[in-house]
Give the backbone structure.
Amino acid sequence: MKRVTRRSVLRTAAGASVAAGLGTSGSVFGKAPVVLSQTGDTAALAPFQEAKIDWRQADGQTITILVTPAHYFEKFRAVTDDLFTALTGITVQREVIPPKELREKAVLDLASGSGNYATHTADPMYLPLYQASDWIDPLDDYLNNTSLTDAAWFNVDDIIPNWRAANTVEDRLYGMPVEGETTIHVYRADVFADLGIEPPDTLEAFAQVATETHTADRAGAALRGFLGAGQNLYIFPSLFLEFGGAWFGEDGSPTVNSDAGVTALQYYVDLLQKTGPAGVENWNWPEIMEAFANGGVTQFIDANSTASVIENPASSKVAGKVGYKRWPQGPTGRRVTSLWNWAMPINKALPEEQKIATWLYIQWLASQPTQTLSATYKETENAVVRTGVNRVSIWDDPAYREVVGFTDDYVDVVLTSLNDDTDPDWRPRVPQWPEIGDAMAIAVQSALTNQKTPREALDEANENIASVMEA
């Protein structure tokens, strides 16, 4: 097959849905998805030109953005370089660095007022800090400006509501979701079938199944054990809430060391120490995904985006042998997924012309045509597709559902998790979150590695959080 090139995207022409992009063959490789209308020499730009705004109002501007290394940002880069610059005359430069370093660099730039980076792929948990420090602009100001945004064309309400909620501080949107995920239960359907085991629906049953399927060659379960607010503290808060934990009491004092919190941490420790892979305290999502794809893990709970890799026969030994379920219920009857999206804010320190250029880019990137195009764009035959599109309308499109229909119920599991199991406040969205997250991450790993008991670890974390909040 012919390899997809960025230039081929510009030559693509047709209707406005994913179905048009896939054509009758259903293949997304060999050509870019056909999602753009044909109008003479500017075929690819037609869907954007339907917006009743002047896309050229920041012509000649150059913006620099910080992004993390991920396949979906490479897809965004491919369509940006050809389509966005042609549409607007704006040049987008990128600096690609890992998430931890990106957060540090972004905070330094925002705090100093340097304005080196127009926007970045932000952690939503940092938005309250940004807002409280007056480092970023509320996006409502741009959304409501008719010279900058065609509200009907952009249709912000089509963007997944809980991702928008996670990026909202004091009723104002501060970061635009451009890619996201939810966490789900991923398991070896073939192993379960061979052993006559039903997929667990509760945390108690999840642990029982982990014990029953654990062998010397295959871990019964895996969860993130690596220390970090975005690592072990991406998964543990869901357990914490499902066991009935609460971050703060009615008087505002931290309560992470409640009996419910301690029980949740004991569950996490017992599960991973007894049925997890060796060295799990050093495992993040890539290690879990790789081990599962190689047959070394029976089940795990993590991002739905892992499906595009573990269902790829070129990189996975278990493709076609996988099942998907919502988070198991906790003792309280709750299911609480981990919630994530890459949020793009606007740096308040920018000159006005660059703010306009930045908004035009964010609006373009988050728009339905761009999200559709990048959703099924494949750089090579074995490249994965995006499973984190930000638009409800795309998830509802039968053709897109077919593209990501790894199982008959995969899309429904993801959407139900996003709609019913997602709590934007599953971690406390306060300016002090970076310090709170670090304190809790240390506590969780110190218990996992037997440096402290769960009670001792959470008592210490509670004291540290109290000090942070007082400061």
